[in-house]
Automatic annotation (TrEMBL):
Pfam families: Bac_luciferase (PF00296)
SUPFAM superfamilies in the record: Bacterial luciferase-like (SSF51679)
Transmembrane segments: none
Gene this protein is translated from: rutA_2
Gene Ontology MF terms: alkanesulfonate monooxygenase activity
Protein name as catalogued: Monooxygenase ycdM
Coiled coil segments of this chain: none
Domain Luciferase-like: 7-214
Alphabetized UniProt keyword annotations: Flavoprotein, FMN, Monooxygenase, Oxidoreductase
GO biological process: alkanesulfonate catabolic process
PANTHER family: ALKANESULFONATE MONOOXYGENASE, ALKANESULFONATE MONOOXYGENASE-RELATED
Length: 223
């Protein structure tokens, strides 16, 4: 069962061994069954705020389920955790792909959302950038309307945004706005087929050296 104490022990150990970052996922409904897969999940921003207070070096990322959190609220929460962490905080943005997570709360926007979710996220990030950069936003778009919206204090350092979009639309969104692009490929050929230099050329950004991380499941005695 996930608890704050368990997560604190893991992240403090990761910091001790010089891991670069800790990222908290968000899952609003698991898959059930005998293993109760992802049925139990702590709220990401609250968890990472607590972990920011008990660490000193490791980068801390919380995940925003963007259908559930208005961008102005995420901007303020992120600025708060930036203050707690001393500039070590960043935000992982997810559009939402598992319909039952949002249907259970009555906030699923309809299946046409799948084709427009990165348009939604593009506007979402623009509001975040406005509020983090200038402390106010008057953005008007198809999904969001800001009317002299304010956030203060602003983050002490430029806020890091990351994303794990795997579709062509997801990667096209990530290339111009994200610090990192997280990819999870089941087949080796897909991982080797990803071309950060091509994405950078298309968006005018300099391509940094691509890095690979391995996602592993560790089995052990958890009694």
């Amino acid at each position: 069962m996930p608890t704050f104490e368990l997560n604190k022990a893991i992240v403090q150990k990761a910091e001790h061994y010089h891991f670069d970052f800790a990222l908290s996922m968000i899952k609003l409904r698991g898959f059930g069954g005998k293993t109760e897969f992802w049925d139990h999940n702590l709220e990401s921003f609250t968890l990472m705020a607590g972990l920011a207070a008990v660490t000193s070096r490791i980068q801390i990322y919380a995940t925003a389920a963007t259908l559930t959190l208005p961008p102005a609220i995420v901007a303020r929460m992120a600025a708060t955790i930036d203050s707690i962490s001393g500039g070590r905080f960043g935000v992982n943005l997810v559009t939402g792909w598992q319909k039952p997570e949002y249907e259970q709360m009555g906030i699923w926007p309809g299946d046409d959302y799948f084709s427009r979710r990165y348009d939604y996220l593009t506007e979402y990030v623009q509001v975040l950038r406005d509020l983090w950069g200038t402390g106010k936003s008057d953005f008007k778009g198809d999904f969001f309307t800001m009317n002299d919206c304010r956030v203060s204090p602003q983050p002490s350092v430029p806020m890091k945004v990351i994303c794990a979009g795997q579709s062509d639309a997801g990667m096209a969104f990530s290339a111009p706005v994200c610090r990192f692009q997280l990819l999870f490929r089941q087949r080796r050929k897909y991982a080797h087929g990803f071309r950060p230099d091509r994405c950078a050329d298309e968006t005018g950004r300099r391509a940094n050296r691509a890095r690979r991380w391995f996602l592993c499941v560790v089995y052990g005695d958890c009694r």
